[in-house]
Amino acid sequence: MKTILSFLFFNLVIFTSTFSLLSAGSDVIYDSAGNKLLRGIPYYILPLLRGTGGGLTLSQNTKDACPLNVTQESFEVNNGSPFTFNPIVLDEDIIRGAYPVSIEADVVNPCHDSNIWKLTAAVANDDDDERLKNNKDKKKKDDDKEVVPVYIVTTGGEFNKPESCFQIVEDDMMPGLKSYQIQHCPFKCGSASTDLTCYNVGIVKDADGNGYLGRTDAIFPVVFTNSFGTFSQSAKISQLSAKVSTFRQLGKK
Ligand SMILES: *[C@@H]1O[C@H](CO)[C@@H](O)[C@H](O)[C@H]1NC(C)=O
């Protein structure tokens, strides 16, 4: 399994580095196969760096907990759930860098809300705020245990609302390999604030080691892998795990 994945990754590096020669200067976002990222098509969102966990997925601590949290698969062989990208301002089929997009889970949501990502306050009381501020300002020695951030990404958002306003920007983590950083940019969707900041969205671990997608100072370089159109809008979460098992079996051959 390991061998096969490394082989795929190697191919990916070769292919995308060739490709980037052709596309220099473009502000268009590309998937991991070098195709333009398209509106409404399901993609897995995978970490660029190996050994840092799997793709982004949705999770629920208990059966009735809503809205769903966007989290990271703990095992890197798991691709997670498919997500779609939809331009907010431009009526275009391609997704451009640094333009506001709505990001949506392409699954049947057990919660009675939308599949649209939004930033949700997860920690409300002042003590926790203070703790978070200290965490940010001072470099703590025992910093390996990060606390859950004030804002985590959940479903239940609304199209073109500040809390659901994201963008994708190219990063230069690995020369020749296109990878991207997802950011939350409230001001690009009519936020009343004068703050023109876009915040990095990345993985923040809770005390138990669960990886949540949330607002963080850290970068989280990702690539987008077409989920092969296997899932219609009506894919179920249970079907998604079936897909992961299928993927594993294929890998064993
Ligand atoms: C999402 O994560 C937060 C913070 O850990 C937690 O309080 C909440 O219950 C989780 N939501 C779901 C749906 O599990």
How would you describe the overall organization of this protein?
This protein is an alpha+beta fold and 253 residues long. It has a single domain, classed as Trefoil (Acidic Fibroblast Growth Factor, subunit A). It is 19% helix and 26% strand. It has 3 helices and 12 strands, in the order αββββββαββββββα. The protein has helices at residues 2-22, 126-137, 237-252, and strands at residues 43-47, 56-59, 69-72, 83-87, 101-105, 118-121, 151-154, 166-174, 177-184, 199-205, 211-215, 222-226. A hairpin with a 5-residue loop joins strand 10 and strand 11 (211-215). It is globular.
Largest sheet descriptor: 4 strands, antiparallel
Low-confidence stretches: 1-25, 124-143, 229-253
**End-to-end separation:** 8 Å
- Which molecules are bound besides the chains? 2-acetamido-2-deoxy-beta-D-glucopyranose
Give the SSE layout.
Elements (H helix, E strand, L loop, with lengths): L1 H21 L20 E5 L8 E4 L9 E4 L10 E5 L13 E5 L12 E4 L4 H12 L13 E4 L11 E9 L2 E8 L14 E7 L5 E5 L6 E5 L10 H16 L1
Antiparallel strand pairs: 1-12, 2-3, 4-5, 6-7, 8-9, 9-10, 10-11
Bound molecules: 2-acetamido-2-deoxy-beta-D-glucopyranose.
2-acetamido-2-deoxy-beta-D-glucopyranose binds next to loops.
Structure, briefly:
The protein is α+β, with helices and mostly antiparallel strands and 253 residues long. The protein is built from 3 helices and 12 strands, in the order αββββββαββββββα. The radius of gyration is 18 Å and the shape is globular.
